[in-house]
Amino acid sequence: MHWNWDWGLDSWIRERKVYISTDSPKVPTTHQSNLTTKFLPPLPTNHLFQTIKNGKDINKMASTPLPLHPLLDTGAGLKPSKDTFPGGTLSCHCSTNKVTVELTSNVAHNHACGCSKCWKPSGALFSIVGVVPRENLRVTANEAKLSIVDAAAPIQRYACTECGVHLFGRIEVEHPFKGLDFVHVELSEEEGWQPVQFAGFVSSLIGQGLDPSLADVVRAQVKGLGLESYDALSPALMDAIAKWNAERDGVVFRSKF
Ligand SMILES: [Zn+2]
Ligand SMILES: [Zn+2]
């Protein structure tokens, strides 16, 4: 699947908006859809923008999806995990001398992440990233090819210097998630990983070039998969972060008000 931020459709919808705002300044908003129908070529059928135009049909986008991530687009990342899943091996994308990482447990908090830092496969809007206790992760081959992407970031992401894939992210500073390593289960051939739980940092996609008008389309598509989407992490994880920060600051919790 190939997709990039410059695809023609984006500019097409922008041109439509320019047309409406410059050529019909006195037309009330409620009439703009008629105007659109009258002066612009009909929307392609069975297409993303047909669903936008129809509004209520926005959830029925299964046949014309944006490329969220292969694990979501194929449904492979939504299958229930196996009860006694022992973990597996992550491999980078090099054809030879692959960097491999062994995980001795399943991941937790596996989610789609729209932030600009997590590694994403080519063409995907989201990364799929989960965590394991750091003691459950071991680099088993070609460790010398790994290099930290940004040593100043709280999560030190170890990428293969040859193919660019991130094998794991580790936190060395005091941080709510210290002790957990961030990994991408798509790098494993094993099946049985925890399914994707939610999509986070959706609005961050705009800063990476997503037309703002498509943010709700992404959310609707995520919802269509049975997942919630958030503009940060899930409430459970945000609460965990807030609790960690509050305890660090000596906050005394109250349950009666
Ligand atoms: Zn590699
Ligand atoms: Zn991320």
From TrEMBL:
<dbReference type="Pfam" id="PF04828">
    <property type="entry name" value="GFA"/>
</dbReference>
<feature type="domain" description="CENP-V/GFA">
    <location>
        <begin position="85"/>
        <end position="231"/>
    </location>
</feature>
<dbReference type="InterPro" id="IPR011057">
    <property type="entry name" value="Mss4-like_sf"/>
</dbReference>
<dbReference type="InterPro" id="IPR006913">
    <property type="entry name" value="CENP-V/GFA"/>
</dbReference>
<dbReference type="GO" id="GO:0008270">
    <property type="term" value="F:zinc ion binding"/>
</dbReference>
<feature type="binding site">
    <location>
        <position position="92"/>
    </location>
    <ligand>
        <name>Zn(2+) 1</name>
    </ligand>
</feature>
<keyword id="KW-0479">Metal-binding</keyword>
<dbReference type="InterPro" id="IPR014185">
    <property type="entry name" value="Formald_GSH"/>
</dbReference>
<feature type="binding site">
    <location>
        <position position="160"/>
    </location>
    <ligand>
        <name>Zn(2+) 1</name>
    </ligand>
</feature>
<protein>
    <recommendedName>
        <fullName>Putative glutathione-dependent formaldehyde-activating enzyme</fullName>
        <ecNumber>4.4.1.22</ecNumber>
    </recommendedName>
</protein>
<feature type="binding site">
    <location>
        <position position="115"/>
    </location>
    <ligand>
        <name>Zn(2+) 2</name>
    </ligand>
</feature>
<keyword id="KW-0862">Zinc</keyword>
<comment type="pathway">
    <text>One-carbon metabolism; formaldehyde degradation; formate from formaldehyde (glutathione route): step 1/3.</text>
</comment>
<dbReference type="GO" id="GO:0046294">
    <property type="term" value="P:formaldehyde catabolic process"/>
</dbReference>
<comment type="similarity">
    <text>Belongs to the Gfa family.</text>
</comment>
<feature type="binding site">
    <location>
        <position position="118"/>
    </location>
    <ligand>
        <name>Zn(2+) 2</name>
    </ligand>
</feature>
<feature type="binding site">
    <location>
        <position position="94"/>
    </location>
    <ligand>
        <name>Zn(2+) 1</name>
    </ligand>
</feature>
<comment type="function">
    <text>Catalyzes the condensation of formaldehyde and glutathione to S-hydroxymethylglutathione.</text>
</comment>
<feature type="binding site">
    <location>
        <position position="163"/>
    </location>
    <ligand>
        <name>Zn(2+) 1</name>
    </ligand>
</feature>
<keyword id="KW-0456">Lyase</keyword>
<dbReference type="GO" id="GO:0051907">
    <property type="term" value="F:S-(hydroxymethyl)glutathione synthase activity"/>
</dbReference>
<feature type="binding site">
    <location>
        <position position="113"/>
    </location>
    <ligand>
        <name>Zn(2+) 2</name>
    </ligand>
</feature>
